[in-house]
## 1
Amino acid sequence: MLKGKTIVLGVTGSIAAYKIANLVSMLVKQHADVNVIMTKNATNFINPITFETLTSNKCLVDTFDRDFQFNVEHVALAKRADIFMVAPASANVIGKIAGGIADDMLTTTIMACKAPKYIALAMNTNMFENPILQDNIKKLESYGYNIIKPATGYLACGDTGAGKLPSEEELFNYIMRELHYEKDMVGKKVVVTAGPTREAIDPVRFISNHSTGKMGYAIARCAMERGADVVLVTGETAIAKPPFVEIVPVISAANMFEAVKSEADDADFIIKAAAVADYTPVNVAVEKMKKSDYDMSIPLKRTTDILKYLGEHKKDGQIICGFAMETQDLLENAKKKLETKNADIIVANNLKVNGAGFGTDTNVVTFITKEGVEEMPIMSKDEVAKEILDKMIEFDN
């Protein structure tokens, strides 16, 4: 995913330096070219050989190291960088960068770098709260640096408070947001529904479905990484929420309908990927419950048709995508849904096809539009998400 991207990581003297080895490994697995620069203090916490082994690149420490190819090393690396992240960033290095001091390889290189720069704070709570440090942070922000605030918790010094380096996963997400995709959706608002809904039968029991939310979450993440402002309306799931998106949790189909309705007016793209629980008298399970000792005092009703409502109230320029999950007559039912719901795109997939359906990491979909039918090969859900958004951008243009 990051092939062809050059990532420079600056590691400073903090006990959290050991965590960066895992971040480096995560980035290398995405085929990024990772280059690590360490301060001399950082070498007391983790050996440069660790990073050299993981990256297959020389780990730079000494500004005047003669063991490299003949070029001005800090300038060459600064020019190649697509992103420069200092993690962990100590109070000392933050003060140097803010003051324009370039007295080692890390501060010299970041001074020469014009790529996006991220500073991930990690230090003692009292140091973090020091007004001098806070002024330096504000100064860096005014210069266009992206500040990643520290987490709160138990620190190596024994104190509890703000100062923990954010997790490797969080740092990885910042890099992915910056580099994974071109920012072709900046200024667009995208509303995505995902996951299952639940319809209560009584205070204990409910009707739901097997949706895991994976497809909707992949769409939300992809849209975010392409620069969109994303609102994710989601039923309860067991998977991690995508970062940097607005999460609106819901339980029932009525909850989801109200949430989508309130967000739809100013949305450019709406993707209904949620599998809404069907709560109707004709449901076989409900008929069986009627004959059992279940409390059927709650009146049965058909759930709100969210996609139909969106189609009936579509705004000028708004693009709507729905999903059709079928076990038979896939194309016929999907084409009918496209017309009756007034959608722009229907993403159809047959639950009986290997690699498609709930809970899988792959999907096999067919795009249905007024222009025709396009069958896609088996792909990861991340790849399907990109194709869906590509289609919607085509409509928008």
## 2
Amino acid sequence: MLYGKRSEETRNQRGQVLILLAVSMVGLIAILALVLDGGNLYLHRRRMQNAADAGALAGARILALDGTDGQASTAAYDYSVTRNDAATANIAVASPIVTVRACTPVLMSFARVLGINAQTVCATAVARFDGVNLAYGAAPIAIRDFEFVKGDPYTIWDDDKDMDPLTGNISGAYRGWLCMSCLVPESCGNCGSNLLKDWMVDGYEGAISRDEWVRGEEGVSAAVIQQAYVGQLIKIVVFDEIRQWYPGKDYYHVLKFAVFEVTEVLATRSPKGIQGIFVDYVDSGPPGPDDGGLRMVHLIE
């Protein structure tokens, strides 16, 4: 009789162990699902964030280059789905902002035991374009602010005679040469033709910021004009005021930046000049409130 009771107790204990083992296995599988499937979801979440970021930036760049909403939407889809493997992309365009929500399904491994076969992972990005607060590689040319029309032809003349920019001719008080390395509060002399010629070809090696006052270079500089070439994209300072911070020394107040695409160099006549059109151009740099055509693209969410 004693033997029979012990056998029954042993069977009960074994049953309890099996129950505890089964419960433990469920818990272990849940932990594995959390660790392995959770890690997999995190990796896919990062992939979708990259896809959304790329799509939003691509779309905003199209808008910055004067593209249409439809072109921006196509670029955003291409960069999020085609190039970065999102399964779907919901895109909203409201210039200057592009919003992309990129998603992809992720199959579960251990979580299947718990009845979770798949999860959809999504990420959202918002990008926009703005003007820039500073420009690297600017040419030593300043033009007075006016309502220039992008794509229309203009000529920047090396002449002190005023020519009305509304007729497409920019000269005299509407155009100035700049000694880029001299900013208020410095009091500098002229930089010289050789330095300006270098900057005309390669751009100023430093940065020029909005609201700075840049020393003007006196006189005309035909040799500088002659350094330009067809197809060149010139970053130009747009000014709104000239002030003599020091006696006899003009300084130009930087309002914003424009980009001028050279279509012809008038180097064999007098006065000399460069013909071209104002265009939109995407560059790096911190965002600025005003926009003369030189723009930057950045994520805001």
